Sequence to fold (386 residues):
Amino acid sequence: MMVLNFLPVASGGGLQNSLSFLTTLDLTTRKYFVLCRSGSEIERLCLKLEIEHLSVRNRVMFEMYGAKKLFAKGTPCFTIFGSPVLSTRDDWINICGVAFSNLFYPSIDFWGHLGRCGKMMKLLKDCLRKQAIKQADGWIFETGVLAEMSRKAGFPSNRVFCVPMAVSEIVVRSSDAASSIRFDKSRRTILYLGAGHPNKRQHLLPDIVDRLERLAPGSYRIVATMNESSDYARRVLTEIHTRKLSGSFENIGPVAPECVGSLVSSVDAMCLLSVLESFSNNFVESWALKKPLFVTDGTWSRDACHNGVVYIDPKKPSATADSIHQTLTSPESIQRVTEAGSAVLATHPSASQKTKLYLEVIDKVIALGPCSRISKSQIDYGKLLT
Fold:
């Protein structure tokens, strides 16, 4: 029996990758038990695939008081994104996928956009995350640079692994479907696929939209997928409205995983303005569907994307607009970047291969057994500052 813990997964790329993992899992060779949120898409998929599962309403209470009673000591548990189930560190063999990239880039002021109190609260949560992640017995990262940084922080080298990102099976299947959202073909459409969040820096979009409109009036439209219930998204949309940029900007709200492929297929390009990412689904989605992708220039993005994207500095709207305009008005540039993206994607596994790689790593950690407390005590994130 292997426990698959999806309790930390709520939405976005984590949900998409979790659904892809379950969809490509061979259910005939091993028995699995899924932990998931009550009423979630993961629960609905478990019902459809007839996977034994438990849906949880109160995650914290369940993890603290209910989880470890369900399974025998030594039970392996794979948490695809997040820290181990609370209270199980001495009972289960925990393998975790780590996507909290900001924990491994202390030089980046990830919460610098917040006020003093807000920043302190986030830093406190990060401290708790650091301690929780240390309690695992094996760690999986999405990029080689993050895996290497974890080793520098003292994570046991033989228990650190890298499984590259793959384009979701759900996205591939839906890419040929007609999108329910139609865009006016008189403008080139650039998609920013991501929830509204200061790290994603959608607040920089109004300046970029404005510069594009000045550079080539009526030629571009940027489409965002922010949930308008968030204060951050509302501030961005208010600025768009105040500056009379609504004709060049559209927010269509959150997109269901099964609709991502058709949506990406219907646009001309994609963009990602994040301060920092572990790895973004936007990378593999743009490469798979041959869309030029404009990405923040940083060590994290260059390690992941190589020459498969167009690098920009989103804090320089004029230069960013120029780069977008020059690329999208040149068929040669579009071909060059999409072919380079396809070449990078060819080095990544398929969704089913990625699932097999996960299982191979899990079996290696099971063979190693629990990580000793002495080894865990040697993990020190402060080493990343030297």
